[in-house]
Amino acid sequence: MVMCETPTETWPVQGDYPRPAGRNHQGNFMSQLTFNAERHEYKLGDRVLPSVSEILKELHLIDDTWFNDYATDRGSKVHRMTLYYDEGNLDEASLDPELKGYLAAYHAFRQSVPIKWTCMETPMYDEMLGYAGTPDRIGMNMQGTYVVDIKTSSSVSKWWGVQLSAYQKLSGAAHKMTVRLSQDGRFRVDTWTSQRDDIAWQSALNLYHWKRR
């Protein structure tokens, strides 16, 4: 079972700070892992570890067709909102009206899908494989442990499965899931079971490090 501590400083503005729940590939908590939010940089001691998104972007596996400043800002706000919701710290009275539909969708998901979060926005790393990342959630239910990523896209992108395979290796979770939240208050759950995603991630990781030899 994957167990983590929830960081107390989840959305810093700037600077390096230790994340107490940083994990190595053996599942141990390691205090020397730091994450600089402004640069989106993970460091293990003096060693910089590439992030999952950095690796996928460099190898052109992320489809950013619909990426723009508005979509990026919306995604960040929704992620922050869902985190505060799960922590019990969300002030709904001050919530941007544009986000209320996404909140209704997330509330519906939490009520409909039985899963208990054991990690929330917890940086993890694999020292041997040489990368780091921060899954949105790790949770568990009667079917086992899940690594879960929260999306605001109406359509599914193939690279999500590769991203989740990377997070699965970091967390040790048995299953992979994306939750798509819609502004109209509805949600969709997608599960990812193809071994091709695992192979694609391992190939991407190998190629990324090969280029830097």
CATH topological fold name: Lambda Exonuclease, Chain A
Q: Report the major sheet.
A: 5 strands, mixed
Mean pLDDT: 86
Q: How much of the residues is beta strand, in percent?
A: 15-25%
Please tell me how large the radius of gyration is: 17 Å
| Count of the separate structural domains | 1
Helix and strand sequence: EEEEHHHEEEEEHEEH
- Summarize the amount of helix as a percent range: 25-40%
CATH class value: Alpha Beta
Structural class: alpha+beta
Write down the overall geometry: globular
The strand order across the widest sheet is 5-8-9-10-11
CATH architecture: Alpha-Beta Complex
Secondary-structure map with pairings?
Layout: E1 16-18, E2 33-36, E3 41-44, E4 47-49, H1 52-58, H2 69-87, H3 100-112, E5 116-120, E6 124-126, E7 131-133, E8 137-141, E9 144-151, H4 159-171, E10 175-181, E11 187-191, H5 195-211
Parallel strand pairs: 9-10
Antiparallel strand pairs: 1-2, 2-3, 3-4, 5-8, 6-7, 8-9, 10-11
Helix pairs in contact: 4-5
Report on this model:
With 213 residues, the chain is of the alpha+beta class. The chain has a single domain (16-211), classed as Lambda Exonuclease, Chain A. Helices cover 32% and strands 23% of the residues. The chain has helices spanning 52-58, 69-87, 100-112, 159-171, 195-211, and strands at 16-18, 33-36, 41-44, 47-49, 116-120, 124-126, 131-133, 137-141, 144-151, 175-181, 187-191. Strand 6 and strand 7 form a beta hairpin. Helix 4 (159-171) packs across helix 5. The longest helix has 19 residues, at 69-87. The radius of gyration is 17 Å and the shape is globular. It starts with 15 loop residues before the first strand and ends with a helix. Mean pLDDT is 86; it is low at 6-22 and 25-30.
